[in-house]
Amino acid sequence: MKQVKARKRFASDTKGKEESAALGSTPLLKAIMVNSVLHNMSVFLPHDMKFFDLFEELAEKAVETAQLLVDLSADYRSQAPHSLSSDSRRSSLSQIKERLTVLEAEGDSIVHQIIQGLFYDHTRVTEEKGDIRYFSHNLDNVIDGVEKAVARLAFTQQLTVPEPVSEFAPIILETTKEIKKAVCCLRDIRHSEIPLEECCIKINELENEADKLNRKWLRILMTTPTDDPNEVLTRLLLKEIVDILEDTMDNCEDVANILETFRLKGGI
Fold this sequence. Notes:
By secondary structure, the chain is an all-alpha fold.
């Protein structure tokens, strides 16, 4: 009886092995097995370095955008208001606005390249891809914010850049420069951890400074009495511009937070 059971067990095992071998020989299962092996091996593959180039290019666009906002304020300060005609003001503002529109489109293109690169990158888990996507979008929002503020500024009839914009501009420029320095640290984050941390601290300090500036101008714009209906409309427009510039600084702070996440994780 035991010998009969043993022969049946042997026959069953042999049949199972033959069926497994037959199934394993099909093209579909071979592809599944190969993909599974490659997926497990992808953990040990080096990360694609192209993201660093795209990050640095996007950060450079942000600096250039902020510099244009500073240049716009400087152009008007360098000339007496009465000597600057309405046509000349609109020409200068129009040129900077057009350049910002180009930079905004170029920033969107870089973000698209990053997203496409993540789609085909099998060396990172979903969480890492999410961090990179969030980082690139927030950095691009800095460019978008400055472009949007200048577009709103073009609606005003003033012959000078409003004082709130002139005060926000250098803060945004300094912040984007700190972001650029921090982004350059990502290539060798293990040896650049301290400079990266210092940049993030500085960005947060500048964002706090922008918060104070925002509260100051909201108080002035919303509480100072006026009987001129046109002045009321101008103030509402300036309030929107101030809100946009404050949101831009908030995006800078979000960028710093993700940079801190990269630092904690030891890279991207």
